[in-house]
Amino acid sequence: MHYIPNANLVREMLESMGFEEVEELFSDIPEKVLVDSLNLPEGLSEYEVEREALRRLSGDSFSPSTPIFLGAGIYHHYVPPVVDFVTSRAEFLTSYTPYQPEISQGSLQAMFEYQSMMASLTGMEVVNSSMYDGSTALGEALLMAKRITGRALFLLPEALFWEKRSVAENYARWQGIELKGVPYLEGEGTLDLDALQEMLTEDVGGLYVESPNFFGVFEESLPELKEILGERRVLIVGADPLSLAIQEPPGSFGADIVIGEGQRLGLPPNYGGPLLGVFATRKRHVRKMPGRLIGVTVDSRGERAFTMTLQTREQHIRRARATSNICSNEALAAITAAAYMAALGSRGLKELALQVASRARWLAERIDALPGFTAPKMGRYFFGEFTVGAPADARGVLRRAWERDGVVAGLPLGDHFPPLKDTFLISTTEVHTEEDYRRLLKALEREVVE
Questions:
Q1: Number of H helices and number of E strands within the chain?
Q2: pLDDT per residue over 136-165, tens digit each?
Q3: At a CB cut-off of 8 Å and minimum separation 6, what does 317 contact?
Q4: Which parts of 159-261 are beta strand (E)?
Q5: Of the residues 85, 159, 344, 429, which has the maximum number of CB atoms within 10 A of its CB?
Q6: 151 φ, ψ to 5°?
Q7: What CATH number does domain 81-341 carry, 3.40.640.10, 3.30.43.10, 3.10.580.10, 1.10.1060.10?
Q8: In this predicted model, what pLDDT tens digit does every residue of 159-182 receive, in sequence order?
């Protein structure tokens, strides 16, 4: 229903409520907090609004031309226009759950395709649709692991993004789950396997590990971790969906649960979301899985039909049996990821992943050639981002790069990893230009000269 305000309709609505003036609707609000006038300027045309927005953006601290090399879970990629065209269609662009499958076949099939593509990337049998983001996917994975094992002690890598750790701790705190950190090898950034084996007491229910991890480093011990843990413990693997286009899937290494942040797949970086939590598991664990699962069946006429096969949340079943209290999810973000992967195809995804990996390697070599800098500071094999050792406190280096050269050169690590005060994390993707790299290297080189 379309509604355009006009005086006659306003009067009719007021009469139906027994009021004469609009102000009477707000009579319960104290007069001292009411605003008489917003002092707004005259309205502008669409063109004038666009020009004003661009003018303000150009004077902002971060203009569209600012070289930004931040990563740490959120990345800037080029999104083909066809992706926005598909996901902006009215059939998809809704926050409402497709409770009526008979009128939601398009949305349900798109979600099913997302699940199928992600299952292929992760090497797992079941993928849900979907979680809020990578951090909440980790929290939900810990709860699921507790349901599977009946144990309440789980191990997390110390080389973990602090915000993700905070979300995991918040989930665990109220579910009686204890979390312990596994140290990383200095200079390598990967799990300390000796320390891990010492921590594997009888009450440990599982391990969460990332590959690539927060430092951008591939976890070389991943193929042997399931054997180290044993069948009675759960192996949760955090993966970068794009990196899976060029590496063996976690499912081939015995992972029980695979999670990740799907923002790379067609979602632009923006303040506050939306993001996309990827969540995959083995078929034998599907009844312990949170979120919704879209399946394919046959209708009364014998035709193929898509429907929500499992939706074990507290809205639909008894609260005590629900696997999650996640309500609305990121279905539109999942459809966006499906459209993005379909637009690129398996070959395009692989080419993009190779380009991201090769650009990071090239940039690391250039930075490492600068006097006083070491890149990568940790690990030999990395994807898209890496650690840089600086000749001075990293926070100061990054601040000066911004103030003098207008370059956001990375993320300082010292505040949360005290031994890494001289280290920052830097990321690059296919959107960075030769000019961006030139400005970055010039900004870092000035640290040595000055």
A1: 11, 12
A2: 999 999 999 999 999 999 999 999 999 999
A3: none
A4: 178-182, 204-211, 234-239, 257-261
A5: 159
A6: -105, 160
A7: 3.40.640.10
A8: 999 999 999 999 999 899 999 999
